[in-house]
């Protein structure tokens, strides 16, 4: 089967790497907290950079704590409410490295169904956050062994990550208490380079025990709402995400 030149160009455009930070313009938010954005000099980034600088100047410190147990009291019209829900889904998706709509819906429906079936699980929001934060690629990023969630997925897909001495190539793998994460010796130099370039902030969460000498991560406890306030550069409305999938 011979493909035409136009079809080949379309295939290469689809497979081409598209950086996520270009999608931050519509959201007016530095979703992944990347300092690289402030160095852009093109005109299209000017308004966003000025908005972020004004927002940071109003805050007393460089980092702010967010309470994820509170609910927003917002009065929107139908059009603004739809836009707010859409931007909320996009922010959560981009923050976790570009999750698909299908995966977000699947995880949200699982959290809602678990709270209905099991009486022990009363907080669907915390269950949703735990299912996202205990992903293998997210935990590698939280431990500062990789620069971003996307680079963590690349390392996992190439087979350089082991969980309990077993090679794992699934980026959606959910870790449990007692799981031990290790790396292949082939990428130890890359991890050292990432650790040197990392600022160490936000601090690794308390439910992880990290050994930076042997490059190991151990999950020691469940996620609590009090240990999540430092992990997010902005307040994310997980309750709106759950309500959008409620039936």
Walk me through this protein's architecture.
- InterPro entries: Ribosomal_uS4, Ribosomal_uS4_CS, S4_RNA-bd, S4_RNA-bd_sf.
- Pfam families: S4 (PF01479).
- By secondary structure, the chain is of the alpha+beta class.
- The chain contains ten helices and five strands; from the N terminus they run H-H-H-H-H-H-H-H-E-E-E-H-E-E-H.
- The protein has a domain at 78-246: Structural Genomics Hypothetical 15.5 Kd Protein In mrcA-pckA Intergenic Region, Chain A.
- It has a five-stranded antiparallel beta sheet with strand order 2-1-3-5-4, with no helix packed on it.
- The N and C termini lie far apart (46 Å).
- The relative contact order is 0.13.
What's this model, at a glance?
The protein is of the alpha+beta class and about 250 residues long. Helices cover about 45% and strands about 5% of the residues. The protein has helices at about 5-15, 25, 45-60, 80-95, 100-115, 125-135, 135-140, 150-155, 190-195, 240-245; strands at about 160-165, 165, 180-185, 210, 215-220.
Show the helix and strand layout.
Layout: H1 5-15, H2 24-27, H3 46-58, H4 78-95, H5 101-117, H6 124-133, H7 136-142, H8 149-157, E1 161-163, E2 166-167, E3 180-183, H9 188-197, E4 208-211, E5 216-219, H10 238-244
Helix pairs in contact: 4-10, 5-6, 7-8
Question: Top keywords for this entry?
Answer:
single chain, 247 residues, alpha+beta, Structural Genomics Hypothetical 15.5 Kd Protein In mrcA-pckA Intergenic Region, Chain A, 5-stranded antiparallel β-sheet, 10 helices, 7% strand, S4_RNA-bd_sf, ribosomal protein, mitochondrion, RNA-binding, Ribosomal_uS4
